[in-house]
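Before the break, one more example. Copy the sequence into your notebook; we will annotate it together after we see the structure.
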Amino acid sequence: MCKIIPDLKNEYLSLSEVDSCSIRCSVFDLDNAFDIYYKNLGWLPKYKK
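Here is what the structure looks like once it is written out:
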């Protein structure tokens, strides 16, 4: 996903306003969250009653 960030910045002008490091960090966090969820290492969020 990080490889296509420059192409997405050319396509969506709003992404060019955001720092590239923050976009990369968001992609890594999302990937990490999916890995934890699909490997059943984490639980679903518990909402307040």
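The helical segments are 5-11, 20-38. The two ends are 37 Å apart (CA to CA). Try to locate both features in your own notes.
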